[in-house]
């Protein structure tokens, strides 16, 4: 498609393209001409076109994709976690915790309400005291600040906003947690993929991203979503070593699974890191509607985060804060959380073993989900499973690098009973052509 761009200045070129995009003349995904070609056609300096494209990127109208060029941004809704609405199929792609495993907050809620007025401390003192011990695990820094936000995604959005400008580059795991990818894209930042393997974020991938000039790194130390990978001690040490040469890059450690994780924490935040933050959300073990996350960070990052909170009410509901404190310090609730952790791990391990027996080798990893590699394209397997009554989630939306997509499913199976688990394992094996389905009478441990 030929695009006849007009204009002599950066603002004129950007305005011409913006008008075409807003009128629908340039559809999402349309590749803009190379900078050099536009400069030659218009008889302007190459830097003028670069500035025009940057203006469009800062407005969220185009996406710069490195060697893949600059394309018109797709403003459709990015895939998110949760149930598919209005489906009659059995949904095993939700990414949700088991509601039966979420502690009942009724009794604690009755003890959590009191009037809070403007000017009171932003953080409940009791929650801050408890968090200061829990959040500082393996942190070598002395001056640690605690902030409360409305969930992990809110934390990441505000942390990036206080440190970056539009079009700045952010290193994200590839595949990537959907909400982190959504936050980076809607914020107008450039996502730089860092490949994830069985031990988590790769060292070569991080090194390449830092060399490409990223200003922030978002890393999941354990229970990576979607793969379930957790950093080994050796991998975490190697990542810290790479980061030592970049002390002012903002390192965000998203320890979202925390109390439910079966893997030990291996932190990537080293003693020389000047800008860093660790996030722990309550949503996996206290329920998504808790809408609360704790952030431990250096003082400057905490100050910037506080500034990003001021446009709102400056604090997260103290009712939620005190409710969270009451629950996480209750021995009975902590026992329930530990039981939930064992439940998720056991169910995922049993289903992974069942798939492996049926010719689909699967490693359970850590977290709420299973990452299942397929011998056939995921889109074909998904359609076949829909005909069999299942709704699954393809792996494609989680990838930043298009050429890596097409052969994975992410399944949420921890709430299936034994019979349903057998049926899904059989149907998945048949749909993928891995093997003949086994007899329905076979046993999958619950």
Give a verbal description of the structure.
The chain is an alpha/beta fold. It has three domains: 10-72, Winged helix-like DNA-binding domain superfamily/Winged helix DNA-binding domain (Arc Repressor Mutant, subunit A), CATH 1.10.10; 90-95 and 333-432, Aspartate Aminotransferase, domain 1 (Alpha-Beta Complex), CATH 3.90.1150; 104-329, Type I PLP-dependent aspartate aminotransferase-like (Major domain) (Aspartate Aminotransferase, domain 2). It is built from 15 helices and 15 strands. The protein has helices at residues 10-22, 35-42, 46-58, 106-110, 125-134, 152-163, 178-186, 203-211, 233-243, 283-286, 299-309, 318-328, 331-357, 378-387, 418-432, and strands at 62-64, 70-72, 90-91, 145-149, 169-174, 190-197, 200-201, 216-219, 250-254, 276-281, 293-297, 370-373, 390-391, 393-394, 408-411. It has an eight-stranded mixed sheet with strand order 4-11-10-9-8-5-6-7, with helices on both faces. Helix 1 crosses helix 3, helix 2 crosses helix 3 and helix 8 (203-211) packs parallel to helix 9. The chain is globular, with a radius of gyration of 24 Å. Residues 436-446 have low confidence and may be disordered.
Task: Lay out the secondary structure.
Elements: H1 10-22, H2 35-42, H3 46-58, E1 62-64, E2 70-72, E3 90-91, H4 106-110, H5 125-134, E4 145-149, H6 152-163, E5 169-174, H7 178-186, E6 190-197, E7 200-201, H8 203-211, E8 216-219, H9 233-243, E9 250-254, E10 276-281, H10 283-286, E11 293-297, H11 299-309, H12 318-328, H13 331-357, E12 370-373, H14 378-387, E13 390-391, E14 393-394, E15 408-411, H15 418-432
Parallel strand pairs: 3-13, 5-6, 5-8, 8-9, 9-10
Antiparallel strand pairs: 1-2, 4-11, 6-7, 10-11, 12-15, 14-15
Helix pairs in contact: 1-3, 2-3, 6-7, 6-11, 8-9, 14-15
């Amino acid at each position: 498609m030929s695009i006849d761009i007009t204009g002599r200045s950066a603002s004129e070129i950007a305005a011409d393209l913006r008008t075409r995009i807003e009128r629908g003349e340039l559809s999402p995904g349309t590749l803009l001409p190379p900078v050099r070609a536009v400069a030659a056609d218009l008889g302007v300096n190459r830097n003028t076109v670069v500035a025009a494209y940057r203006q469009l990127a800062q407005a969220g109208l185009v996406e710069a994709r490195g060697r893949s060029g600059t394309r018109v941004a797709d403003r459709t809704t990015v895939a998110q976690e949760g149930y598919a609405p209005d489906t009659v199929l059995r949904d095993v792609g939700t990414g949700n915790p088991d509601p039966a495993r979420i502690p009942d907050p009724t009794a604690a809620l009755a003890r959590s309400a009191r009037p809070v007025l403007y000017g009171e401390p932003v953080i409940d003192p009791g929650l801050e005291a408890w968090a200061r011990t829990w959040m500082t695990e393996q942190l070598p820094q002395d001056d640690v600040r605690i902030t409360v936000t409305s969930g992990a995604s809110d934390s990441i959005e505000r942390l990036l906003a206080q440190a970056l400008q539009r079009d700045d580059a952010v290193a994200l795991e590839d595949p990537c947690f959907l909400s982190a990818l959504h936050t980076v894209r809607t914020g107008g930042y450039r996502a730089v993929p860092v490949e994830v393997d069985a031990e988590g974020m790769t060292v070569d991938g991080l090194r390449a991203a830092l060399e490409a000039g990223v200003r922030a790194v978002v890393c999941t130390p354990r229970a990576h979503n979607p793969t379930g990978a957790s950093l080994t001690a050796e991998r975490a040490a190697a990542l810290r070593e790479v980061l030592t040469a970049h002390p002012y890059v903002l390192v965000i450690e998203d320890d979202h699974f925390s109390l439910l994780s079966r893997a030990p924490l291996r932190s990537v935040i080293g003693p020389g890191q000047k800008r860093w933050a660790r996030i722990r959300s309550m949503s996996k073990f206290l329920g998504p509607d808790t809408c609360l996350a704790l952030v431990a960070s250096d003082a400057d990052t905490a100050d910037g985060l506080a500034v990003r909170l001021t446009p709102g009410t400056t604090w997260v509901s103290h009712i939620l804060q005190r409710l969270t404190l009451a629950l996480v310090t209750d021995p009975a609730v902590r026992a329930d959380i530990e039981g939930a952790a064992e439940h998720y791990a056991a169910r995922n391990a049993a289903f992974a073993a069942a798939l492996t027996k049926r010719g689909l080798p699967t490693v359970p990893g850590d977290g709420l989900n299973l990452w299942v590699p397929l011998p056939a394209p995921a889109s074909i397997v998904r359609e076949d499973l829909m005909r069999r009554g299942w709704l699954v989630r393809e792996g494609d939306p989680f990838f930043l690098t298009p050429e890596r997509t097409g052969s994975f499913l992410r399944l949420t199976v921890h709430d299936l009973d034994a019979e349903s688990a057998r049926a899904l394992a059989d149907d998945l094996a048949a749909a993928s052509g891995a093997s003949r389905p086994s007899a329905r009478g076979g046993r999958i441990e619950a």
